[in-house]
């Protein structure tokens, strides 16, 4: 039709100029495969053509079981841009939960790396709803499997190029499942419009101080591609023309070598990954390559002790905040006018916060009656949010959707406060907070204080039942050096003396462990710690 025609907010249009503007920028999968942007987008079109040829149609759900590889990245673009729906399966789930989420999502086709084929073959009778298995081997050798029908990835991507359609903005682009710390995993859906607006907002936020990212920065995100769109970094990185490094299966030695070899300048990760990197026996060999490395920490709060150890190596760490239901980013630390006038020490303290809302995101703290509490740096409540990209529903779960959106705001289930400068601070998860004598003890604040000791590695605080107080805090600590329970309590007393925590917050018990149990997204699994608390308490 002649006349006015506007471009739509869809992934196809978001990247319409990327290969033209940055044809020679690179996407690397560890030290194994490398493509220019021009070559990558050609492979994306080829892959879409191959998917269409085997029967993938608009609206079909195509799942992926893989590490962080170039093939996963091809699916990130090809599947939603052709109008199908990308299901990023959590490969750290148990086989039972992998089956549950794939069945619940109603997957039609599966892209699977050879590593995961045996798990699927053992349970193949359960997957009778799958119409096609797309398998690849890194060495390109012959594939033998009992899964049927199956297609070789290498054969599919050799097909003719594909012209991506003009989809509607509300076309579903992705589905994935929450990490299931309580109950069964819940599916969250995002449209093309959601992903485009989230990408634009994140791209704007990371280009503000102190990150000041430009197209010359080299991205390597140590967040699995299955975890909330790898926090949106694949889309933001390619949109901005940034060389993008994929680490494959996360191994600290590999990550450090990639930082050195590929001159990585920017990453995003959960605290546990950074902790493992900084505690590598080889860390001193890489000191010169880590100086100036910029890292966003999300998934849980940035511990002060971890940030200080990073700072000693010249690494810039800042906090961010979001969750599965919010695509995920809601806030990132950046310097507003108020922060710009603060001292460097004060800025460092602020950088541990969850930061400021990114463009188009709205965050407030409310009481149980949905009344906003003062932004005074101390009055806590539940964090609720709105943004044009947050999920509108849990897939096939009207009851949980109603809970999520009660009062017209998305309820995060997190407790926090906003300070006088406008920065968000996370106090706790509602389910993790310790309620002692009718008052709340924010475990994240307590964990941060404990971690601010050079002999403490990782730490997690959970509630212990108490006949007198209802609950009391117990700290699980991974030692980094020789330290006793009494020394940790003396360390916390200094926080009490400076009025940074209350005396009654000091844990009744400190339990030293070799490692903390982790969720599938590398957060401390407090559910497991609570379940086994009595066993730990009885240990000598």
Helix vs. strand class: alpha/beta
**Can you summarize the main beta sheet?**
7 strands, mixed
The radius of gyration over CA amounts to: 24 Å
* Mean residue pLDDT: 93
Distance from first to last alpha carbon: 79 Å
* Low-pLDDT sequence parts: none
Please name the CATH topology of the domain at 33-188: Rossmann fold
**Second rung of CATH, namely the architecture of the domain at 33-188:** 3-Layer(aba) Sandwich
CA-based shape? globular
CATH class of the domain at 33-188: Alpha Beta
Overall strand count: 24
Instruction: Compute the number of helices.
Output: 20
Strand order of the largest sheet: 7-6-5-3-4-8-9
Helix content: 25-40%
- What is the beta-strand fraction? 15-25%
Structural description of this entry:
The protein is an alpha/beta fold. Among the domains are: 33-188, 3-Layer(aba) Sandwich (Rossmann fold), CATH 3.40.50; 437-538, GMP Synthetase, Chain A, domain 3 (2-Layer Sandwich). It is built from 20 helices and 24 strands. A hairpin with a 3-residue loop joins strand 1 and strand 2. The longest helix has 17 residues, at 37-53. The model has no long low-confidence stretch (mean pLDDT 93).
